Amino acid sequence: MLKNMTVGSPAKHILIFSLPILLGNLFQQLYNVSDILIVGRLIGVNALAALGATAPIFFMCMMIAFGFTGGLTVITAQRFGAGDEDGVRRSITHCFVASTTLSVMMSILLSVFLKPLLRAMNIPLEIFDEAYRFMIILCAGFVMIVFYNLLAGFIRAVGDSKTPLYFLIFSTILNVIFNIILIYNFHFGVAGSALGTVSAISISVVLCLYWIKRKFPMMHLRKQDWKIDAQFMKQHLWIGVPMALQFSVLSLSMLIIQSVCNAFGKEIIAAFTAALRIEQLATQPLLALGLTMATFAAQNWGAGKLGRIRTGVRFSALLSLIFSLFLALLVRYVGSSMIAVFIKDGDSFIINAGKDYLSISTMFYFFLSMIFVFRNTLQGMGRAFIPLMASLTELIMRAFAAIYLAKILGYVGIFWAGPIAWLGGAVVVTIGYYVTIYHLKVIRDQNYFKNNQRKISLKASINHVNQIPGE
Question: Which residues have CB under 8 Å from 468's CB, separation 6+?
Fold first, then answer.
């Protein structure tokens, strides 16, 4: 169902739109949690460590796909908000061309440089082969990852956040079934987890295509829609590339942390992997509000309604504050006990190390929530530079903390890296948002003044003409 968020209550739109995204994100995390749960319980710590050691590479692939396609579909949402159906279709074709190019290039590069990358990450020799098999399968399926994110982005761009949720739920169930069959019955090991993931995502791509063809006539492409316009493509890439860079920078910082973490051995890798999955699951309400603001801001920016964007941001920021406090308490006192679920042998050292990470990170959830709200709003408005600068700030702070603090505090130093980076990123995007809004208001007021001056001058001219005596 199409949903126009340029009219009506901003708070109501944000709540209704974010709920399916939240549920979808939860299932997406269950998707990931099911992988490590099945691997950790059915195979063991070595397999869990192999999956966790390569997690930043998979995260990088996912984030580049998510950032690039999310940036491209901002234009789709803006055209929809402006009521330009031809523009929506043309945006879709330009997104397809750009995404196909990205996915093919990434698949080739990852396949060629995967082994050197794994060596550079200090992956222990006893888990190296399993880690390589896991990642090479995901590299082969990267095209499907990109297209699923793109198609889901098209559907959300026109205000439908429910349909991607349904497909994700179905895909998650398939992923669990495939993983159990391939790991337990066919003994494929960690490679079975990768095969299950790629197969489930591929089915989701087919379902998205079918749904778009059946339910969204606006997106039925015509021959003339495939005529590529260089300037229009530039508009898409102007947002898509910085967003992909932004997420790749974040991924690079995670690679650095994981490389430092890997040097502490498979037990710390397993603890860090389990704790991160719990945290990612718990913080999904914050991410859902951020993703909602991207679409809300894009549609209203396309409609020229800056005031509605500001109202939506105020509501989302307040809601994020409440959520971040509640989630921090929940994870601190309940979530930490879940770490044992992921560990087959119940190793107390691994469990306690995971609890240490959660005890530190929960104190910084508020700053993470501000990143989601302000970053996605700026991206929805087509302002990609400030989020990119925030990501660079996170990279620098995370890398410095991971390398420097690890020397002083040991593996606990790694646990401080992410939270410290959230603090830095939150400061940059918050200040950037308010500076952007201030400049836009100044421009709007100047244009309003100029228009009024023209009207006054025109009225004075008319009065002067009327006062001239007739011949």
Answer: none
Rounded distance between C-alpha atoms, residue 91 and residue 97, angstroms: 10
8 A C-beta contact, residue 390 and residue 429:
yes
**What 8-state DSSP symbol labels residue 144?**
H
Q: Domain coordinates of the chain in residue numbers? A: 10-456
- Spatial distance between the Cα atoms of 288 and 308, rounded to a whole number of angstroms: 19
> Could you give the C-alpha distances from 407 to 56, 355, 401, 412, in angstroms and in order?
21, 21, 10, 10
CB burial of 332-347 (b: ≥16 within 10 Å; e: otherwise) equals beebbebbeebbeeee
Cβ atoms of residues 28 and 322 within 8 Å: no
pLDDT of residue 106: 87
DSSP state of 228: -
Q: DSSP string covering 269-296, please?
A: HHHHHHHHHHHHHHTHHHHHHHHHHHHH
| Predicted structure pTM score | 0.68
* Residue 7 structure tokens: 């009219």
**DSSP, residue by residue, 320-371:** HHHHHHHHHHHHHHTGGGGHHHH-SS--HHHHHHHHHHHHHHGGGHHHHHHH
Residue 384 structure tokens = 């990609």
Identity of the amino acid at 219 = M
CB 200 within 8 A of CB 174: yes
pLDDT of residue 429: 93
Q: What is the DSSP string of 194-228?
A: HHHHHHHHHHHHHHHHHHHHHH-GGG---GGGG--
**Six token digits for residue 464:** 């002067």
Cβ(114)–Cβ(132) below 8 Å: yes
Low-confidence ranges of the chain (pLDDT < 70): 1-3, 28-37, 39-45, 48, 250, 335-336, 341-347, 444-471
**Which residue in the block uniquely carries the two structure tokens 């750009």?**
98
Which residues, 6+ apart, have CB-to-CB distance to 462 below 8 Å?
Answer: none
d(C-alpha 114, C-alpha 18), whole Å: 36
Q: Which residue reads 């190019």 in tokens?
A: 101
